[in-house]
Amino acid sequence: MASRIAHFNIRARDPEASIGFYRKLGLEPVGFLNLSETMYLIYLGTPEEPDVTLELTVNEAPPAGYDWSAGSGHIALGVGDMDAALARLAEAGFQPEGPPFHPGERAELRVCFVRDPDGVRVELADGEFRTPGDELPERFRN
After folding, report:
1. Considering only CA atoms, which of 16, 13, 48, 51 is closest in space to residue 31?
2. How far does Cα 22 stand from its chain's mean position?
3. CA angle 94, 117, 92 (to 5 degrees)
4. All structural domains of the chain
5. Does pTM surpass 0.90?
6. Non-local CB neighbours of 20 within 8 Å, separated by 6+ positions
7. Is the N or C terminus of the chain more exposed, i.e. has fewer CB atoms within 10 Å?
8. Is the predicted pLDDT of residue 130 greater than 80, yes or no?
9. What is the pLDDT of residues 43-60, one digit of tens each?
10. What's the angle, vertex CA 78, arms to CA 87 and CA 39, rounded to 5?
11. Quick check: 66 and 39 in contact, CB under 8 A?
């Protein structure tokens, strides 16, 4: 059973422009996760609720066929016990896209993706999935 909504995700072509837009709506960078030299995640939220976030996925070197469509991405749920959640989904006929993994080879994070009945990607995060706290690059701070 989901314990809370962790984040919503969209893919951003121009992270500076996206941050500027969401700042106008009251969101600020509250977290950052560096996945590789060309792919990273920026978490936007409010100081009052820094762990309910909008996750911007930035892929500076996307592979051929990378989906930039509006609304692409996923929702994420902290599920407490991922193995139990996957077992419940399997009983209902839902299989994950692949096995659980540690994004960016981070031992403290364990996630898995599954699609809902409408094809929406849902990221299951083991535990509560607190917003990552890698150092935010200077260019995104102001």
Report:
1. 51
2. 16
3. 30
4. 4-58+70-135 (3.10.180.10)
5. no
6. none
7. C
8. no
9. 988 888 878 888 999 999
10. 105
11. no
